Amino acid sequence: MCFFSPIRPLAMCAQVCYHRRRKSACAPFRTQTRRTHSMQAFEFYCPTKIYFGKGAEARVGEAVKHFGGTKVFIVYGGHSAVKSGLIARIEQTLTDAGLEHMSFGGVQPNPRLSHAREGVQKALAFGADFILGVGGGSVMDTSKAIAHGVANPETDIWDFWSKKAALTKTSKLGAVLTISAAGSETSDSAVLTNDETTLKRGLNTDLQRPLFAIMDPELTYTLPRYQVGCGVVDIMMHTLERYFNPGHPSNRMTDEIAEGLLRTVIDAGRVAMQDSHNYDAMSEIMWAGSLSHNNLTGLGGVKDFSVHQFGHELSGMFDAAHGATLSVMWPQWARYVVDTDPARFAHYGEAVWRLTRKDGESDRDLALRAIDTTEEFFRSIDMPTTFTELGIGVLSEEQLRELAERCTFFHTRVVGKFCPLDYDGILAVYRMANK
């Protein structure tokens, strides 16, 4: 099987082939690090109003009233949000603003469809006209699902994620961020795990961008070290999944934003892993998380998100932490596809990791060094890079094949844009991580 990327004027033209006897599936006709032709066209839409800084959660009532909410359905995760007093503070600011409210907890990582369905029914019974998510990506994604269900009570929400129904309307939605990672507080994305089938699916639509996001870095101080590391990886991946795409963006500004964001979150991540109460580091990570997934870092290009697809299947089958699945899969994917555009990977090493090209070093050798450096960083913040380190052990060939089948939606699609991979290519990447 062979796919070809679209041809653009003076752009890199990549032939995408599935070589059965090579580590890499793709080989370019030519590559170049910077292109000088005119900026690529794009559309950018990010309607979310940001309230950023210490104590920003005190403005929740004001924000909800500003956007016309009157009956607020609060969605949150575990006991920490209650124990810390955050939910009580938010309830109080809503009461002070004269707003009715009802709270609904219990969201789990890799958010469950069944819990979101329960939330829809409770929000409808309450008569909610505003959904407020208080937490991280799983809470935000569950809140988005509940918002869709309230606006479309005649449709099961899984029909939107399984593409059986088109989403044309939703409810008003706001976010109070407590975990910097997913970027769901400003993104058009949401994922749900069907706990009956263990299939994890994503939905992208501008309808699910929150109207506002409350972002107080101090709310992230109590995160476990592992969760901070997962967040750093997720933020990097949201950027890298846009940075590596066919005929990578000629928009220099887009590249500069992406590279600066990556350098910032790497530096801040190192500090935060040692001191989660460092306000500056946690602030940088929080803001980088939002910018990494609102599409700013990929303007002029297309999203790839191969690695997210690999990770979703691992999360669905083994309930593994999302960020941890990405730290396992990105280095393997990168080594498999490096020959698609070694100059791009080499430039990534120079621009992000500040690697210096050695005398006589080829693009490919520098590219591999950049991939190794990324993997070393993941290890330095205690993130897994193999299945064993992820905690699922060495998988059987049957399990690997099931992962690949699920990732292709059971042989109905290829994955990725930078180097589209079919079942065999996906299976090969999973095998590389299986140690």
The poorly predicted ranges are 1-25, 27-37
Can you give the mean pLDDT?
90
The topology string of helices and strands comes to EEEEHEHHEHEHHEEEEHHHHHHHHHH
Strand arrangement across the biggest beta sheet: 4-11-8-7-5-6
Beta strand count: 11
* Sheet with the most strands, sense and barrel status: 6 strands, parallel
Oligomer: single chain
- Distance between termini? 28 Å
Category from helices, strands and their pairing: alpha/beta
> What percentage of the residues does DSSP assign to strands (E)?
5-15%
Tally the helices: what do you get? 16
Rough outline: globular
Q: Radius of gyration, rounded?
A: 21 Å
Task: Kindly state the percentage of residues in helix.
Answer: 40-55%
